[in-house]
Predict the structure.
Amino acid sequence: MPKPIVVGLDGSRESVAAAHWAAREALLRGRSLRLVHAWEGLPSDDEPSALPEPRMPGDRARGILRTTLDQVSEAHPRLRVSAERINRFPVPALAAEAEKAELLVLGNQGLGGLGAFFMGSVSWASVAQVRQPVVLVRADWTAAREHVPDDRGRPCVSTPYREVLLALDPKHECGELLDFALQAAEHRGATLSVIHAWQPPHRLGGPNQEGDAPGRRDTERALAELIDPWRKKYPSVDVQVHTCRGRPAPTVTHAARGAGLLVVGRRIRLATTGSHMGRVVRQAMHRVACPVAVIAHD
């Protein structure tokens, strides 16, 4: 049975935007959509309560789910959508849901003030722990922004999709990233742009462009050997490869300004402490405007 796309809702504008992005993605992939709201201490639907106060968290959870379910169903009537409250702390609940899902979609940043810090920590912790793909969506990301502007520079849903951008390092395992990014590009009929930023070894006297040429050629050769088999697997996708001299995190962030989706990798680490994420992922989460897909890999 095909796995659904799961969205974690918290009532924020970001999570609602995530639900709408996930609905569009579910239609592209031919999947169902599952909306969940998790919070420890939610009362069950049949739990009696004589006072209104204990019911308030449950009422809010039902309201979040019902409102978003109605909005998504109205916007996408052909989509199969379900919703559920989960009485569990958000991060372990989302991790458990992700294990049964094709991908997990979350809002990128949450409510203002203290809520932003808390919900941001939920997204951060979920990305660091979940081994399935996680997509993070900002509040102002709409269907029109997924497409290139029209002839007058206005947002338009009838123009072609923006490119899918994949940040790749051939020194690490890349199969999961390439497969996800190529599928995303194929579903959209979009170009896949692969970017790799590299830095030459430090030399006395500063940079030397001529001396860096062998390093660039080696990098380009490694990328070609890595990507060529995947071109054959996805022949309909136009794959463009770019190598840039510079620091990876700012280079990827700058390149993502015109993308419709950024795909980055996160190495799975066995350590129980630390953020479990590199600089590219952290900077993408903080600064990239388009949805960011984080793919865990060995």
